[in-house]
Specification:
alpha+beta, 3 domains, five-stranded mixed sheet, three-stranded mixed sheet, binds 2-oxoadipic acid, binds nickel (II) ion, iron, EC 1.13.11.93, dioxygenase, 2-oxoadipate dioxygenase/decarboxylase, oxidoreductase
């Protein structure tokens, strides 16, 4: 019997192998990432408090894009077999880098499962009923095209259902399941209908990538790096052109929070095209890319509001400056750092006591037994050495960075008529499509933190909260 978490680990490994053959720059990225991680551990010591090195080395997130609620539900069934559940709702249809999708991330929920293998897949659903992007006629034709394709073969879905019910699969079935699941996300050799792909591209490159082909594919696979600034420089030295900056919080002297990401465009990939006269020709498409990320501490809602305010303040200040090119990137980094130094706590302890970030708590084992009674407040418990706090790693995504990742890799802007009405999408509508609950990321972190705090307080003889 292969249990769920082993299926997940094997799936992540197989996808990584396939993606490496499809996108050679990904292999370079993995090599550089592994080297940087080793160097960082040698320099700074073990990153234990934000996940062990084994976890970090194996850690990946992928991104896929699907066209219909049915396809999303089926993707959800495949991921459920791997112990990955929908968490969070991301609406990427607004703002300067708007794309016609809404998204969730499939990932393990529990701490032990995350520690075993935290594989996650950012999954986006096309929104053809959003009239700002698609008119009636195009939406109807998209519906017809998508309704005819099958992304996940019935045999795969049958095995997925058995794996979900049974918490795993017998060896032979596991192998078959993993083969079918990996194949479902591999690039297809099927010719792309050029006219149809072009028509969709005029609306949105993302719409063409989703609705212009008969299969889905992994869009990127992202390793986790411990020093993303070093990685950025090293990849540039390898001759790979990175996007102009690292998205998310700046590099600074305080704690690493949330998520910092950067990416590079993959080279064009050879694809077969079907022309209007039926001939099949060779061509190229350039839609996939490489991405890497560094993960920090999960923020509470209050912490997140602070983060969003600091980001907005950085934007305001950089918009006022008139530098361009690499000067602009350096300027942005310096401005962001200054904004953070003025507005964000500089220590983990302050993040904990101000309720800005999530930690797990445990009674300190080292405290001398001096007959004193523990104080009641969190700050005093931490200061006087009664409790230790360990950061909870941020396991999710940032909508603004996601939009940046989408945008930085598009050659054409999406056409959007903001006079028309948006289609109403929210987490509930996504949950209905999935036929599964969409979990609230904040509630997951809060639960875990509070459970450990209650236990720790009980162990110290205090009232649980
Ligand atoms: C997903 C983009 C979002 C991230 O890391 O924020 C994403 C996509 O390109 O399909 O993967
Ligand atoms: Ni990504």
């Amino acid at each position: 019997m292969v249990p769920t978490w082993r299926l997940r680990t094997a799936f992540a490994r197989r996808l990584s192998a396939v993606y490496g053959t499809e996108v050679p720059a990904y292999t370079t990225l993995l090599d550089v990432t592994a080297r940087i991680n080793e160097e960082t551990v040698r320099r700074d010591g073990h990153p234990g408090h934000l996940g062990g090195l084994d976890r970090v080395t194996a850690e990946r997130h992928g991104a896929i894009r699907v066209g219909t609620p049915d396809e999303l539900r089926q993707a959800g069934a495949v991921f459920a077999a791997l112990g990955m559940h929908p968490v969070g709702f991301y609406d990427l249809r607004d703002g300067p880098g708007a794309v016609p999708v809404v998204s969730t991330a499939f990932r393990p929920l529990d701490a032990e499962e995350l520690e075993r293998n935290p594989f996650r897949v950012f999954t986006s659903l096309l929104t053809p009923d959003d009239r700002r992007f698609f008119d009636d006629g195009l939406a109807r034709r998209l519906g017809t095209f998508l309704g005819r394709r099958t992304l996940f073969p019935p045999a795969l879905l049958a095995l997925a259902a058995r794996a979900e019910d049974g918490g795993g699969l017998p060896d032979a079935d596991a192998d078959r399941f993993l083969t079918l699941a990996t194949d479902a996300f591999a690039l297809s050799a099927e010719p792309v209908d050029r006219a149809w792909y072009e028509e969709l591209s005029r609306v949105s490159a993302v719409a063409a990538d989703i609705g212009g082909v008969t299969t889905t594919h992994l869009n990127h696979l992202t390793p986790r790096v411990l020093d993303i600034d070093a990685l950025y420089r090293r990849m540039t030295d390898h001759g790979i052109t990175m996007i102009d900056r690292i998205q998310g919080p700046p590099r600074w002297d305080g704690p690493d929070v949330l998520l910092r990401q950067t990416s590079f465009r993959a080279l064009s990939e050879p694809r077969a095209f079907r022309e209007t006269d039926g001939r099949v020709t060779d061509g190229t498409l350039r839609v996939r890319f490489g991405e890497v990320e560094a993960r920090g501490i999960a923020l509470t809602r209050t912490g997140r509001t602070r983060y969003d305010a600091l980001t907005a303040e950085t934007d305001r200040r950089t918009a006022a400056s008139d530098t361009t090119g690499s000067d602009a990137a350096a300027d942005h980094a310096a401005t962001a750092r200054a904004v953070w130094e003025a507005g964000f706590p500089r220590t983990e302890r302050l993040l904990a006591t101000e309720g800005l970030a999530f930690f797990t708590y445990a009674p300190a084992l080292t405290r001398p037994r001096d007959g004193r009674r523990p104080p009641d407040g969190l700050a005093a418990l931490l200061d006087q050495g009664w409790l230790t706090a360990r950061p909870i790693v941020y396991e999710d995504f940032l909508p603004r960075s996601a939009a940046g990742i989408f945008r930085s890799n598009l050659t054409r802007d999406t056409t959007r008529d903001t006079e028309r009405t948006a289609a109403p999408y929210d987490a509930d509508r996504l949950a209905a499509a999935l036929d599964r609950p969409v979990h609230d990321p904040f509630a997951r972190y809060a639960d875990r933190s509070l459970t450990t705090l209650r236990q720790a307080r009980r162990a110290l003889g205090l009232t649980p909260t």
